[in-house]
Amino acid sequence: MASSPTRTDPAPAEAGGEPLAILCGGGAFPLAVAHAARRAGRSVQIFALRGHADPGVAAFPHVWIGLGQYGKLKAELRRRGCRDVVFIGNVLRPRLRDIKLDWQTVRLLPRIVGMLRGGDNHLLSNIGRLFERDGFRLLGAHEVAPDILVPAGRLGRKAPDRAMLDDIEIGRRALTTMGPLDIGQGVVVINRHVVAVEAAEGTDLMLRRCAELRENGRVRAPTASGVLVKVPKIDQDRRFDLPSLGVLTVEGVARAGLAGIAVEAGGVIAADLPAIIAAADAAGLFVYGFEPAGAT
Amino acid sequence: MASSPTRTDPAPAEAGGEPLAILCGGGAFPLAVAHAARRAGRSVQIFALRGHADPGVAAFPHVWIGLGQYGKLKAELRRRGCRDVVFIGNVLRPRLRDIKLDWQTVRLLPRIVGMLRGGDNHLLSNIGRLFERDGFRLLGAHEVAPDILVPAGRLGRKAPDRAMLDDIEIGRRALTTMGPLDIGQGVVVINRHVVAVEAAEGTDLMLRRCAELRENGRVRAPTASGVLVKVPKIDQDRRFDLPSLGVLTVEGVARAGLAGIAVEAGGVIAADLPAIIAAADAAGLFVYGFEPAGAT
Q1: Burial class for A59, CB neighbours closer than 10 Å (0-12, 13-18, 19+)
Q2: What is the pLDDT of residues A100-139, one digit of tens each?
Q3: Of A120, A191, A195, the CB nearest to B199
Q4: What is the pTM of this model?
């Protein structure tokens, strides 16, 4: 049944073959991934989450889907001949009364309620299993658009010095320890001291807090010291939720008076890396991709 | 030499015998501890850190000490016949140019610079060793004023329900895991999800962030759900820096829309527990002391 669409429709065959379905949450990444996938020669079909996806997705063939409409989504995916699905972009935790449930979703409700009670890893992995049970193949954005992954090494003009490399290592270790707790993906380390941990607030708000900690004297290290460190969570299903870097991140790091940004190479996505590097160079910040733990 | 003061002074003998030295940082706790120690029958001598201690400490026999004046502090302690020292209250990380160093401190500089590069545990334990090497005995505030420790059990009218006890347990485990990282002492858990981790910003700012996360929709759980959990750090030297609870904490928890506050019994201090419980009862929040891990 998973392979027999319930309606007959125009065959999806076109340049790029079977279209890639991109299920779009909020933010700039869904569009970046759609463009990159098209550049890589695939035809793209957008499934835009109502209330979350950027209206700019309308530049691609698209359909809008509500959060409680798994039945509609499944039918539309089959109707358009999509088997490969990429889920990209942020989705704020919904208030239940804002969701209109279709019948397929109602049947899944007991399972969904269980998901919503856990942390993000739990939620996303379970959504993944729902899709696969119905015969779809979930891919990570990096699999269809590998050029959005931040690579290893020094990426701009500045390189981290010895003290900054120490801070990077301390941040990396702290994030590795916290990974199993399903807590955020970022920390700020200044002079070997973890001064901020990212949880539900996200990287931008954490950086704003660090700027305030300097202003109110709780952190008194000189500016141009300290590092934002980001890694994917240890047991994170990379098909769903790789952490991201943007020009806003660079601006936040500059305002927080840090020396630079370090991310796990291949584990963090950037919609427009050249723009990020240009912004970092202009602000005198380093951008550095370190090898994952265990790699040599 | 440690037992021979360099000046002859009025003998410290008075009601309470050898006076207790309270080295006072910022906040309300130093005064609460001074009053509690005096109630317990000890005479009290305040050593107030300039730029940090509350001017209210002047109600006790006192002397002001600058942060770089270890030599002066040592001499004054000996002159007043103090051997027992309690170090209480917060001390913001100083900017080096704000510190005037005396000669004794200059000799210790290499060691102090090393301390300032580490996390708080490291810093405080090393300061402890300095004092002990010079013949003083460092006590915890809870040893001279045990009634400031938050006890076990339900402390106000409200008790945590099953879901809240789950959140408490998740917070307790997260904090246990993070302890060795020398990261804060508090988390907020809502519906089994760690939404905020306290690092250098302190509990009040973390709670303000949780209120904002609800306002901007990043956290959509209904109000009166979720818990603030506080424990002392695993390897924390309790003589220096037990986490604290105050009426401000209760107000922050109420504004963040949480259901209550849970702390490790015997591991968190409160300057005025009756006032805290009254505020929590008025706001419909629970206050709960849970047994330390490993206790039965």
Answers
A1: exposed
A2: 777 777 777 667 666 666 555 566 667 778 788 889 998 8
A3: A195
A4: 0.75
